[in-house]
Design a protein that fits this description.
single chain; 123 residues; alpha+beta; Immunoglobulin-like; 4-stranded mixed beta sheet; 9 strands; rod-shaped
């Protein structure tokens, strides 16, 4: 009986040593990649939904306070590509002497293609 137990213990030791020397599987942790950049698009219109061509859209980087502008075409659409996903931006439109409300594109907004429509009250 003692010999059997000793033999069993020895075999378990051999198996444990052999298992320790086997290569362990490498599990790669797969992370979802966040977008490297994002794009902001939208339309500038009046209170009736009519596009306001020749409006100027102002985009402010709240980290650096740098300002980009976009002059709207006949369709009223604007587009700011290649924006950092880690920065908040403020955007507003100006048509003649009137301004839209200022909207914020938050860094917590994870959409790669954000849409913010701007409305300017005109008479």
């Amino acid at each position: 009986m003692k010999k059997t137990l000793a033999l069993l213990a020895g075999m378990m030791l051999v198996v444990a040593v052999a298992a320790a020397q086997l290569p362990t599987p490498q599990f790669r942790q797969v992370k979802e990649r966040a977008p490297q950049t994002r794009t902001l698009t939208g339309m500038v219109s009046n209170q009736h939904g009519t596009p306001l061509s020749d409006s100027v859209v102002y985009l402010t980087d709240t980290r650096t306070m740098g300002v980009k502008t976009y002059i709207v075409g006949k369709d009223g659409m604007y587009r700011f590509p290649a924006l950092s996903p880690n920065v908040d931006y403020q955007v507003y439109a100006q048509y003649q002497s009137r301004r839209s409300d200022t909207k914020t594109l938050s860094s917590f907004d994870s959409r790669p293609n954000a849409v913010i429509n701007l409305r300017v009250e005109v008479k």
